[in-house]
């Protein structure tokens, strides 16, 4: 095969990027991956692994966060190569791809994943406190809440700071240089709408560390009205928003601790919409909705069962008939609501700028102008509806629920366990070599002309980048995140009275 590594055919033109020893790179990468992969993969497929542990009533939440992490990776990989992950089916005459259909598009929609992360985090952060509040256990509340607030900063920021340090050092050592040419000539090699910057390389270690600390200082400054995105890793913009929303939620929970459950639910919803509609902080509304669903779950599970009366045989038959009819109506209603939830979650990222059919006429008119990330508003309400539907599936019906079968699958649960580590390293992997894999594959097969070659190079590059990120996320979770958690526990044991 007359494949050449010094030329690449893009849009009918030949380009000569910086030469990269592809064979040597892949050979070295394969050796490293093979040497490191055995133990992490064993944890995924072994029956004794953590992913195969006993399921709990909230295990499906780990699964949905795991799938959301995959969607984030898919968006950040594909949006450098195609605009179809941003626009919906039917936006133009050319937007007729299957991945743009509502529902299917969620596989590539990392923005909806942010809503998933924030809403589930709101549920998790508030559940224990709301349980103490609902049971009028003030001592338990003020024994657990300070620890939760104390750990929250370190839980979010320590792994993130370590990730930024690793990226900064790798940039200084030159790991990003083989692919920098492609980013400097973005329009030639990355025709998609992605605009992620490549981490900068400074001439001295001191300058590199100064730049790293400057970015860390910007990221942990959650007091500013509009936090700045860290340029070392553009994807970490979510960290400061998640921490801010957590702190606001904790304050509101304490303020509403003495309220009745109905008043607390009403005020949580009211405060959430004040944050979103008055100040544009849609991410706080996600957290508040997570707390609302947690409160509803607590009320539902703690509710004492009513007194059951003995019925006559005829009355039992009538009750059974009415119950069957009610079950059918309930199934139809829930199915319809699932469809509505998926439809809203699939609102295109560029939906307000390039309106698509139905979304333009139905959804766009109700999006408040104050919401800067306007596409988040329908996605938020769609996922909240889905989250509520999933949380209200009766425990006895969950083994037969398709949703719960998918979300509690071993792979989904494993992805949920390493979700944070996977999220932190995916940008690092993509920028070092992940984005360049399709380019190198196209060079090996003689170009990217034609749908088959283009798809082959793109999908094979995606598979290799995903496998590498999965491995790196597992290693990061085991060796970095775990140590951060242990350090936080140790620090808490020193600072708090036992």
TrEMBL record:
Signal sequence coordinates: none
Acyltransferase domain location: 59-467
Molecular functions (GO terms): acyltransferase activity, transferring groups other than amino-acyl groups
Keyword Membrane in annotation: yes
InterPro entries per the UniProt record, alphabetical: Acyl_transf_3_dom, Acyltransferase_3
Membrane found in the keyword field: yes
Keywords: Membrane, Transmembrane, Transmembrane helix
TM spans (from-to): 63-81, 101-124, 153-175, 280-299, 420-445, 451-473
Domain of life: Eukaryota
Official protein name in the record: Acyltransferase 3 domain-containing protein
């Amino acid at each position: 095969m007359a494949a050449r590594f010094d030329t690449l055919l893009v849009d009918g033109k030949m380009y000569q990027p910086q030469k990269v020893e592809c064979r040597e790179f892949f050979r070295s990468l394969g050796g490293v991956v093979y040497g490191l992969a055995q133990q992490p993969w064993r944890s995924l497929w072994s029956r004794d692994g953590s992913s195969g542990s006993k399921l709990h009533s909230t295990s499906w939440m780990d699964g949905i966060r795991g799938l959301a992490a995959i969607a984030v990776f898919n968006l950040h990989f594909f949006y450098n190569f195609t605009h179809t992950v941003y626009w919906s089916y039917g936006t133009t005459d050319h937007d007729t791809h299957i991945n743009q259909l509502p529902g299917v598009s969620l596989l590539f929609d990392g923005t909806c994943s942010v809503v998933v992360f924030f809403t589930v985090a709101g549920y998790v952060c508030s559940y224990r406190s709301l349980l103490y509040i609902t049971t009028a256990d003030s001592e338990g509340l003020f024994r657990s809440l300070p620890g939760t607030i104390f750990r929250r900063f370190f839980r979010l920021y320590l792994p993130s700071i370590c990730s930024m340090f690793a990226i900064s050092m790798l940039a200084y050592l030159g790991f990003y240089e083989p692919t920098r040419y492609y980013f400097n000539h973005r329009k030639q090699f990355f025709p998609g709408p992605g605009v992620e910057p490549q981490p900068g390389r400074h001439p001295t270690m001191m300058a590199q560390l100064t730049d790293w600390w400057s970015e860390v200082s910007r990221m942990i400054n959650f007091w500013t009205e509009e936090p700045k995105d860290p340029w070392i890793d553009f994807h970490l913009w979510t960290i400061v928003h998640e921490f801010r929303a957590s702190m606001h939620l904790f304050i509101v929970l304490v303020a509403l601790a003495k309220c009745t459950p109905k008043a607390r639910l009403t005020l949580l919803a009211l405060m959430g919409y004040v944050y979103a509609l008055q100040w544009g902080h849609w991410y706080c509304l996600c957290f508040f909705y997570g707390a609302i669903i947690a409160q509803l779950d607590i009320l539902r599970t703690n509710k004492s069962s009513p007194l059951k009366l003995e019925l006559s045989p005829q009355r039992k038959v009538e009750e059974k008939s009415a119950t069957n009819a009610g079950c059918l109506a309930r199934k139809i209603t829930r199915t319809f609501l699932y469809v509505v939830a998926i439809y809203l979650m699939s609102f295109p990222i560029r939906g307000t700028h390039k309106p698509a059919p139905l979304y333009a006429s139905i959804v766009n008119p109700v999006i408040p102008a104050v919401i800067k990330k306007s596409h988040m508003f329908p996605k938020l309400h769609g996922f909240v509806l889905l989250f509520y539907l999933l949380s209200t599936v009766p425990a006895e019906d969950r083994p037969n629920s398709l949703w719960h079968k998918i979300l509690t699958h071993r792979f989904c649960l494993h992805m949920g366990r390493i979700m944070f580590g996977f999220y932190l390293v995916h940008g690092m992997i993509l920028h070092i070599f992940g984005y360049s894999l399709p380019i190198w594959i196209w060079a090996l097969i003689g170009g990217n002309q034609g749908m088959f070659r283009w798809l082959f190079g793109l999908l094979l590059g995606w598979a290799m980048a995903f496998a590498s990120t999965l491995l790196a996320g597992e290693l990061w979770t085991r060796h970095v995140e775990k140590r951060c958690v242990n350090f936080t526990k140790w620090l808490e044991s020193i600072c708090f009275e036992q």
